[in-house]
């Protein structure tokens, strides 16, 4: 038996190992089990979000209240009134039916503040400019839009590369976009889904993307399995000729 080894018995079988090896194995097992539990917690959270999303997708249209938190309005369809601002943003690299183009994002000034509205998709030409007219309608507008979260996604480099309007952007960051027009935005994106909702809609193509909990259950099972395999291998080696 190695010097400074710890002896213990499991299931009538005697084992021995250095104390720091046992500690290392236990710490690793505890860490992997914690990851498994965390994935289960994420799965439970996503199940709750899915239920909320399903309810919101079929809920009646309500008047938008800027005092409410976006988390309480996610995927809710709301009615807004306001005037479109002249500055517009073109979200680059948006695909529709195999064609590349932009999502047209237009600030809407309401009586309580400014919101960012996704008015739809427009195809880009070879010079990376919109093929169709994208000027928003003037005067007071009444629109219906779906409140959506702004996904972080992969961000590389600057959000834009020029100061011309409409300004082409690579991703949505409301704080940076607010700096471009000297205002602040309600922390959500408002998407017009159908041409029946407003004369200001371009080509609608947005669909809600809500990730389910299945991947989290899979990850939880994997971490639990890794823990089990590690413990089985460790104790098997201690009982056999591995050591």
What tags apply to this protein structure?
243 residues, alpha/beta, five-stranded mixed β-barrel, 3 helices, 10 strands, 29% strand, elongated
Write the layout of secondary structure elements.
Blueprint: E1 5-10, E2 13-18, H1 19-57, E3 62-63, E4 77-84, E5 89-96, E6 99-109, E7 114-123, E8 140-148, E9 167-169, H2 174-181, E10 185-191, H3 214-239
Parallel strand pairs: 3-4, 5-9, 7-10
Antiparallel strand pairs: 1-2, 4-6, 4-8, 5-6, 6-7, 8-10
Helix pairs in contact: 1-3
How would you describe the overall organization of this protein?
The structure is a single chain. Helix 1 runs antiparallel to helix 3. The protein has 3 helices and 10 strands. With 243 residues, it is an alpha/beta fold. Strand 6 and strand 7 form a beta hairpin. The strands form 2 sheets. The protein has a 5-stranded mixed barrel with strand order 4-6-7-10-8. Strands 1-2 form a two-stranded antiparallel ribbon. The chain is elongated.
Task: Sum this structure up briefly.
With 243 residues, the protein is α/β, with parallel strands linked by helices. It has helices at 19-57, 174-181, 214-239, and strands at 5-10, 13-18, 62-63, 77-84, 89-96, 99-109, 114-123, 140-148, 167-169, 185-191.
């Amino acid at each position: 038996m190695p010097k400074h080894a710890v002896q213990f018995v499991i299931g009538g079988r005697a084992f021995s190992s250095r104390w720091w090896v046992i500690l290392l194995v236990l710490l690793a097992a505890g860490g992997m089990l914690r990851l498994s539990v965390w994935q289960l917690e994420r799965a439970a959270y996503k199940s709750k979000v899915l239920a909320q999303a399903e309810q919101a997708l079929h809920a009646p249209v309500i008047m938008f209240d800027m005092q409410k938190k976006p988390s309480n309005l996610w995927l809710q369809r709301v009615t807004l009134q306001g005037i479109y601002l002249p500055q517009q943003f073109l979200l680059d690299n948006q695909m529709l039916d195999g064609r590349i183009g932009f999502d047209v994002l237009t600030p809407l000034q309401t009586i309580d503040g400014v919101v960012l509205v996704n008015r739809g998709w427009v195809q880009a030409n070879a010079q990376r400019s919109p093929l169709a007219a994208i000027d928003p309608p003037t005067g007071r507008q009444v629109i219906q839009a779906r409140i959506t979260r702004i996904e972080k996604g992969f961000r590389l480099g600057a959000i834009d590369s020029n100061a011309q309007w409409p300004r082409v952007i690579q991703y949505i960051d409301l704080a940076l976009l607010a700096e471009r027009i000297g205002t602040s935005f309600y922390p959500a994106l408002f998407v017009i889904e159908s041409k029946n909702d407003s004369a200001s809609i371009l080509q609608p193509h947005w669909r809600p993307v809500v990730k389910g909990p299945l991947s989290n259950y899979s990850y939880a099972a994997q971490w639990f399995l890794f823990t089990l395999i590690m413990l089985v291998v460790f104790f098997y080696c201690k009982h056999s000729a591995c050591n």
